[in-house]
Amino acid sequence: MVDDYGEVLWRLRAIHGLRNFLGSRAVTIGKARGKGCPKAPALCRDRYGMDIVEVPYSELDRRIKAKRAQDHVMARAQKHAARYLAQPGVRLETDRIFVVNAFVLYSVFKDLFPLSPGGGVAELRVRATGVHARPELPA
Questions:
Q1: d(CA 133, CA 78)
Q2: Measuring CA to CA, which residue among 114, 103, 122, 112 is closest to residue 54?
Q3: Counting Cβ atoms within 10 Å, is residue 94 exposed (0-12), middle (13-18) or buried (19+)?
Q4: Which DSSP letter does residue 115 get?
Q5: Cα distances (angstroms) measured from residue 76 to each of 52, 54, 102
Q6: How far is CA 41 from CA 15, 37, 55, 126, 128, in A?
Q7: 24-48: buried (b, 16+ CB within 10 Å) or exposed (e) per residue?
Q8: Chain centre to alpha carbon of residue 72
Q9: Please, which residues have CB within 8 angstroms of residue 60's CB and are 6 or more apart in sequence?
Q10: Is the CB of residue 48 less than 8 Å from the CB of residue 75?
Q11: How confident is the model over 36-74, as pLDDT tens digits?
């Protein structure tokens, strides 16, 4: 007998989330770190079997520069930015180049995490991505 189906649903969702988390893969840009807990990456690897893939900033910088050097990538980013900014209710409150750069970065991340035809992440099976902020950014 069940008194509260909301309680059952909450528990089923928690179990589902835990099962999806166990043995999953996360990609970090920069070194994997735990917010407020330096031991978090090791804990995730050891206790939960998580595979944490670290992509160095130098690799991200190289990929961004390569994309910016491709005219067709920049043209596509300009087109996507124009289409995004033309949507109702969207107002540009910064320089347009920042929006274009966001679409270039989107292209870089799509290359890092290739999607399968069904829309899911293919080889990497990535469930999480983290970016560690650093004071100096690539030019």
A1: 26
A2: 112
A3: exposed
A4: B
A5: 31, 28, 12
A6: 22, 9, 14, 16, 13
A7: bebbbbeebeeeeeeeebeebeeee
A8: 23
A9: 29, 108, 138
A10: no
A11: 888 999 999 999 998 888 888 999 999 999 999 999 999
**Bridge partners of residue 126, in order along the sequence:** 25
DSSP β-ladder status, 126-131 and 25-29: parallel
Beta strands in the chain (DSSP E): 25-29, 51-55, 126-131
Whole-angstrom Cα distance, residue 3 to residue 23? 34
What tens digit of pLDDT does each residue of 76-101 get? 999 999 999 999 999 999 999 999 99
pLDDT for 45 equals 92
